[in-house]
User: Fold this.
Amino acid sequence: MALNRTPLIAGNWKLNLDHLQAIAFVQKLAWSLGDAKHDFAGVEVAVFPPFTDLRSVQTLVASDKLPIAFGAQDLSAHDSGAYTGEISGAFLAKLECSYVIIGHSERRTLHNETDEVVAAKVQAALRHSLVPIICVGETAEDLETHGPSAVPVAQLRAALAGVNSAADIVVAYEPVWAIGSGQAATPDQAEQVAAALRAVLVELLGDDVAAKTRILYGGSVKAANIAGFMREPNVDGALVGGASLDLDEFASIARFKQHVGL
Assistant:
């Protein structure tokens, strides 16, 4: 974790929590972190609810002035048109979303999203001033065949096609073999890949962008292991899946500085 990059702890709820449950969760999360005197400027906290929850979360955050960011789990490559079931970045911008997750491994595998689709979605996010959280990662087979960083590096290169140095992006390394398995990568493994990803940012977008871009780790992140990842110089936060649905666990992950003394 570099001192000049604000850590980001992002909770991806996936297909969980309806809009009423979302309101209750975000309220309690804000209260819990507030009671613990969490420094939101020092560690940013964001939630990624399903589309149907976003308006409720937006209204709550705005009306109660909660210091919690929020974003969407996906968006369409298209801005409008005959694309039944898709969600435009324009809609997300109107809902005051700060972020959108793009290229999550579940989108790549379950919905057959290619590198080209991911790149088009990155462009769609940037058109509407949304910060894309670009997910990259390898399967266990990829790891054995190509090594630890080849696939994530290739995915990031593809996703950044056409992105200029003025873009505000976040990169999330999520080894597919670690997601939901309970077996996270080691901090050393995460750092090795994060360093390789930052080298790609330097090459394609320049030193300044690479220095400010946050790289997250995702894959079986818990309060018990977050400290190890956050000690690494190129890991700037976490994309949290299952643990983001446990209020106490997620709040503890967000408060990693307090409970591990970093």
